[in-house]
User: Which sequence fits this backbone?
């Protein structure tokens, strides 16, 4: 088992990564304050993995209640979070209870948000079951829900007590969801780790083939990268914004196309390609480096061109509400080199427009082929 720590002073917490962690009572017990435990999952994950986890918790003497939400990004809403509050109140849960998120990033983000709000803040544990949630969303305390006008617009920073990444559960993940997780892994490489790019170029075929050891290494390396950034800048005042590489474009795609139509990781993949193209237009990356980014995404079985029906103005409209907008000016994460991202507002807006125009044309051409 690999264990690392997110170093946040008295709010520090461990991330354990290994197969078969759902039944590890010894890892859960130290983080459960009282008897009351609310297990939150969804209609797809619960039938697969809830029973062994519930048995583990029951064997420790806990009162385990469950709240099973509908599955999908379209249900990442205040209404779903309210269903968690209903369950907590119906069972008279108090301030010392613990919420456990068993599922992907959608469940993790909502359970974290419910924990941040319930009786002004209770403990929670992340048990991420998708590759994306193991490498990214379960770590760092960004929690929340979507709004029809923008992704993750309602939320809070609220750190978990523990992250248990059971890599065995990845075996049941559909290939499209595995690829979505690979997008966030590629993100860590592109934003800050050129050696990781080389590693991925070598190992992406194995990762796509669910190679368990290789997946474990990728989860570990990604969590190390994220833990380091979060420890340095918990509330995104500076360096943490680099974790948003590809996201301003990606969130525009998710919102415009309708939540759940494009997976988060797919939209981020396209966003990273757009960031690379724009960096090239600014003279920061060579065309050969952009081709390397494209090849990485293709090796991960991810898209790199945006939806052909999405117009340049559609991007601009959604990007205008991005959380990184400062005094009405868009800030983007771009690449000064492969493995070296920066946050910048220092670009001619024409470069953004030209890049979006060119890539839109390429997407339309590809759609006609
Ligand atoms: N908080 C953060 O820092 C952060 C980081 C990245 C992404 N996110 C958010 O995470 C969400 C995306 O997360 P996701 O990709 O995990 O999506 P998801 O939670 O929708 O899970 C993807 C699908 O896989 C299913 N699933 C989960 N585990 C499974 C398993 N082991 N076997 C089979 N099916 C399984 C889910 O039920 C769902 O249908 C987005 O809302 C995104 O905004 C948050
Ligand atoms: O943890 C972070 O910080 C990230 O930006 C991670 C992203 O992968 C994630 O999608 C996050 O939810 C995006 O944050 P947002 O603030 O742009 O909603
Ligand atoms: Zn993301």
Assistant:
């Amino acid at each position: 088992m690999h264990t690392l720590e997110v170093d946040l002073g008295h709010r520090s917490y461990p991330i354990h990564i290994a197969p078969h962690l759902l039944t590890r009572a010894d890892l859960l017990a130290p983080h459960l304050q009282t008897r009351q435990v609310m297990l939150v999952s969804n209609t797809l994950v619960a039938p697969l993995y809830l029973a062994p986890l519930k048995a583990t918790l029951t064997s420790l003497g806990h009162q385990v209640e469950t709240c099973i939400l509908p599955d999908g990004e379209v249900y990442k809403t205040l209404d779903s979070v309210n269903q968690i509050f209903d369950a907590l109140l119906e069972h008279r849960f108090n301030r010392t209870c613990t919420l456990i998120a068993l599922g992907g990033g959608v469940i993790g983000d909502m359970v974290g948000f419910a924990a941040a709000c319930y009786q002004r803040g209770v403990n929670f544990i992340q048990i991420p079951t998708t590759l994306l949630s193991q490498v990214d969303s379960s770590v760092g305390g960004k929690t929340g829900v979507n709004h029809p006008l923008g992704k993750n617009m309602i939320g809070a920073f609220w750190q978990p007590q523990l992250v248990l990444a059971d890599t065995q559960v990845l075996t049941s993940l559909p290939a499209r969801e595995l690829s979505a997780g690979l997008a966030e892994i590629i993100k860590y490489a592109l934003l800050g780790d050129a050696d990781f790019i080389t590693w991925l170029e070598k190992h992406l075929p194995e990762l796509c083939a669910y190679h368990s050891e290789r997946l474990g290494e990728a989860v570990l390396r990604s969590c190390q990268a994220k833990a380091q950034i979060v420890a340095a800048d918990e509330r995104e005042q500076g360096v943490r914004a680099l974790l948003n590489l590809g996201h301003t474009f990606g969130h525009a795609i998710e919102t415009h196309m309708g939540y759940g139509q494009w997976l988060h990781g797919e939209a981020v993949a396209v966003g990273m390609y757009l960031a690379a193209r724009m960096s090239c237009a600014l003279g920061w990356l060579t065309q050969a480096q952009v081709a390397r980014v494209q090849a990485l995404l293709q090796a991960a079985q991810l898209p790199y061109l945006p939806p052909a029906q999405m117009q340049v103005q559609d991007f601009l409209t959604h990007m205008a509400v991005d959380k990184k907008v400062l005094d009405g000016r868009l800030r983007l994460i771009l690449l000064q080199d492969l493995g070296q991202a920066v946050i910048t507002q220092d670009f001619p807006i024409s470069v953004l427009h030209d890049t979006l125009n060119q890539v839109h044309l390429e997407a339309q051409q590809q759609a006609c082929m």
Notes: The mean pLDDT is 97. Residues 2-171 form a domain with the Rossmann fold fold (CATH 3.40.50.1970). Residues 42, 44-45, 48, 71, 73, 76, 103-107, 109, 129-130, 132-133, 136-137, 140, 142, 152, 169, 172-173, 177, 180, 264-265 surround nicotinamide-adenine-dinucleotide (ligand 1) (CB under 6 Å).
